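Protocol step 4 of 5: obtain the predicted structure for the target chain.
Materials: sequence only (see below). No template structures provided, no constraints applied. The aim of this step is simply to have a reference model before the mutagenesis design in step 5. Sequence pasted as it appears in the construct record:
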Amino acid sequence: MFDKAKINGDSEATDQQVVQAQLDKLDLDKTGFEELQLARVITRKQQQITFFNYSSDNDDSDSDEDDGRLVNQKEYHDNGMARYFRTYQNRVDANGMPYQRMIEEKHFDIDGVCRVDVHFAVGQPYLYRKHFWPNQRLKSESVFWVEDEVTMSCKKWGHWRTYYDTGNVQTEMQYRDGVRYGFCKRYAHDGAIEWVKDYTKQYLERIEQFNEKKGKVAFTVMDACEILGFEAIPPSMKEVNSQYRTRCAPVHPDKTPDPDATEVFIKISRARDVLKVFFEKQAHG
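Step 4 output (structure tokens):
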């Protein structure tokens, strides 16, 4: 055991000086337990962790492990192939209401090919989503900034790309705060650039327009009818809802990698809301 009293001559040494002087000389095979403990080296002895006066026998922190427990949900096709895998955590929001915080989600076709892969890592604000072609080549990749984990309110963010089934890039878009930013491009099958535009100069103006329209319905009744494909006001909401479902199906953000699909989807949804308000007013005179 080393001399704790003196180091370098006759001057009395403090514990810190002893540790500093001996730290580079420690040999884990030859140094005794007290030296390792003083040098703040964690050691194991009979499955107990000793760190100064701490003993794992007194550790009751396992009681809160349920807070971080991951739950796995799996569903299968009738042929036994995987259809849906999901990993999440059970959490409680600020109002004490329980919710499921998604961490990973995968969707498979009937042949077992993964078609959608979503990752939302714990402690991270970004959600990553990928779509795949039936030949397992990447179809699209996108990034979202998650504003609220409970409602999963998101904004488009970062680089978005779509690909042909051959693997060649089809579109490259950049987003910030939910709107296009920087250079955006579209390519032909052979890789030739068909369209390119720089949105940098328009960025601030587009942000203002986006925030102004967000959550608001800015259509007249006739505008809404035109968006949903009606030449005149339909007889009832039954026709509106039917046309809404027909129009939304090909542009739903979860069904297509088209970077413009979300804006079209929102526009169609707002049009239905306008007609819903119109028919409610008609019903109440």
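Step 4 remarks: The radius of gyration is 30 Å. Residues 2 and 49 are 23 Å apart (CA to CA).
Proceed to step 5.
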